[in-house]
Structures are given as structure tokens and as C-alpha cells.
Amino acid sequence: MSATKQLVLDLPFDFNPDKILETATPDQCAIVLTTGCEALHALLNKKNELSNEEAYKQAKTEEAERWSREKTRLEEDAKREREKLENTNADQVKQLEDKVNALQNKIRSLESSIEGKDVLLKNVNTQLNELSASEIKKINDARTQTRSETFEEINKLKDDLKTANSKLEKATEDRLEAEKIHNKNLKTEVEKVRKELEDKNNVLQSQLLSLTGRQATSATKGKDNEDAFAALLDKAFGPTQLYKRLDNIENKPGDHIIEWEGTKIMIENKKYAKRVPSNEVDKAIRDFETNVDCNVLMFVSEDSTITGHERPGDLDITHTTDGRTAIWIGNFSSNEDKITYLQMIAQFIRELGVLQAKVKQLEGGEALKNYKISIDDLLLCFKNTEEDLDKFLNLQDECERQQKEAWDKLRDGITSVATSFKIRQADAIGMKNNNYTICGANPDATVANDTPTHTTRVIMRRPMRKR
User: Fold this and answer.
1) Are residues 377 and 371 in contact, defined by beta-carbon separation less than 8 angstroms?
2) How much is the pLDDT for 412?
3) How confident is the model at residue 46, as a pLDDT?
4) So what's the pLDDT on residue 102?
5) What is d(CA 312, CA 397) in angstroms, rounded to the nearest whole number?
6) β-pairing, 296-301 with 325-329?
7) Of 30, 149, 302, 346, which has fewest CB within 10 angstroms of its CB?
8) Where is the composition biased (Basic and acidic residues) (predicted)?
9) Can you list the positions of beta strands (E) in 212-333?
10) Beta sheet of 296-301, edge-to-edge order
11) Residue 305 CA to chain centroid, in angstroms?
């Protein structure tokens, strides 16, 4: 908020300022004062054109005329007062006569002050005559120097503005070039991903056409599911010398048999829309008990739970009568990363093998009790690890979104800075041109029209007339 400065001026008691000044704004009052100062300068300059004697005579004449007018006005006032009081009593007449005498004394006092003004004018003329030419030259030199320094500062500011414009244009070009390269790379990546998706889509469509061309029998559907799950097993457990599928065994029990790190795993893969019936569960247990060469049974349900084995996390661990382990996995297709899930199951089977080997070396119920506790700990570890993987995938998606938002924010910030600079530059150039238009060719006026830091408000005060 700009401050308002007040200036008190002493005016003649008979001076009546225009009423428009009572409602004028600070800027309008400044215009009135500036205009009056210019008129006063013009008057003083006009007097300077006269000789000292002529200026003295002119000032004396003007002063005499002004006081003559004042004398005439006072005499007229006295006359009116005298006429008004002619019909009053003698005391009142006496008082009026005293008042008239006082006014006449005041007139004589004013006439004496005129003589004092004459003395003052003579002193001023003497001081003007004593002003040497060297002092006048110093004033002119200082004015010339100020004018030169002002032009130099203006030229320097113009050069700085050109330099800033050049830097801004270069920065804008660099940003546009970087954005162009980024968009080009992004377009290339998008095209690459699009092509990969199209290739995968073509492969899937071919597979779909191949599947729809076949008879929709339970046998063909089961074979397709077995082949897809076999591919998952190969990716999760292999390729390694410690892994192989034994699906070519004649009369093999289960859908798949694999050997991994010396452990044979019998795998049942079922696809039911609702819960897997108990007869499928019983059949899997019978097949596993008859196949004594297998160490672990892994029963996998794609889209539903398993009767008798509904557990939190869709994972249950049981044991057959001979102590071998059976792993029951429900709703397998709900896992986003099925390969990582199977690899976790593989690690679980490895730990179970270690525990079973220790149990065989021990005797007594305490060993079995500790074995069951270890099984429960492994289940909890498996569940916690699965939750950590889900959190990691969510965090990865969040980081990708934040990275995109940060890049968009940075791009918008660069555009905002460039736009704001251009607007300020246009405003600055427009203000400079307005200053030159108002000031004309007077360089001193250019300095005077710098941006003001506060507003000066002039208050004209006149003395109250005595009654």
C-alpha cells in the first residue's frame, strides 16, 4: 500500500481555492501542484530575462498595486461600517471611530511593510549579482552529467534486456528440443509396445481360432489346461539340470509329475467354476498314496476353492497316513504373477524337505510337534511374502504415476515462466514508451518520471480571517 505525503502551504487570507481540490485524488493534486510549479518557473524565468533594475521596479510596482488594492478594500469596509453606525448612540460611534482609526493604523503598518519588501528585493538583487559565472557553470555541468549518466543507464538496461531475451529464447528452444526428443523416444517406445501387443494379440487370436475349431469336449478342454499349466511349471522350476517333467510315464497318476532337486512332485490341476468336489479330492489322495515314489502332492484349483481345504490365502498343508506332504492351492488364477507364486511354493517344498529329513532322524512326539510348528511358521512366512509382493507391485504402479505427474508439472512450470517473462517484458517496454511520450525530449523529465515509490498529497491551508 503506497504512503500519502502531506504538504502544508501558507496562502493569503483572501485566497479561495477551487472546491474541486476538496474531492481531488492524490494523483490529481500532484498534477495541479506540478502545473502551478511550472507556471511559477515560467514567471521567474520571465523575470530573469529582465535586468535587475527592471525586475526590481516591476516587483515594487506589483507589490504597491496589491497593497493599494488592499488599502482600498479596507477603506471601503471602514466606510460601510461608518455608514452603518451613523444612527447609533455616541458610544457606539466612538467605538466605530476607534475601529476606523485601528484600521487606518493597520493600513499605515502595511504601507511600512511595503518599504520592508523593497529592502528585501534590493537584497535579493544584490545576491543575484554576487552569483559568479563559475557557480552557474557548475550547475550546468552537473545537469549535463546527470543527463549523460541517465542515458548510459537506459542503454545498459536495454542491453541487459536483449541479453535476457536471448537467454530465454535459447532456453525455450532447448526445452522444445528436449521435449521433441522425449516425445520421439516415447512415440518409439509406444510403437514398440503396440507392435508387441499386436503380435501377442495375433498369436492369441490364432490360438483362439485353433481352440474354437476343435470340439468343445471335456477331454480337449482338460488337455488345453494341462498344456498351459505345464508351460507355467517349466518357467517356474526350470530351465535347470535339477528339474524335469516325467509326464511320459505310462499310467502316471495325476495330471503332471515333475522331479526338482531330487524331490518328485505329483500335481493335480483342476478347473471348476465352483468348489472342487470331494470325490476329486479323495481320488487325488488315493492316487498319491498308491504312487509311493512321489514325495509331495500339489493339488491346484484354478478358479475355486477345494472342498475340505478352505483356508485364509487359499493355501493348506496336510499329510497322508505315511507322513508325506500334500499342498492344496485354491483360486490359483487370481494371482497376478503365477510364476513367482509357484517359485514361492518351490521354496516352501524345499524347506519342507529339510524339516522332514530332520523329523526322520528324531523320535518321539516332541519332534512331530516341532515339525507342525515349523509348518505353521512356513505358512505364515508364505502369506507375509505374498502380501509384500502385492505391496511392491502397488508401489511400482504408484511410482510410475508420480513420475508422469512430475514430468507434466515440470513442463507446465517451464511454459508458465516463459509466458510470465514475455508479459512482464511487454509491460516494461510499454511503460518506457509512455514515459518518453509524456516527457518529450527533455532528459531531465525522463529522470523525474521514474516509477514512484509513494504518492505526495498537497494540502493548501489559508489563515482564518479575523472577525
Assistant:
1) no
2) 85
3) 62
4) 86
5) 26
6) parallel
7) 149
8) 55-86
9) 243-245, 256-260, 263-270, 296-301, 315-319, 325-329
10) 243-245, 256-260, 263-270, 296-301, 325-329, 315-319
11) 52
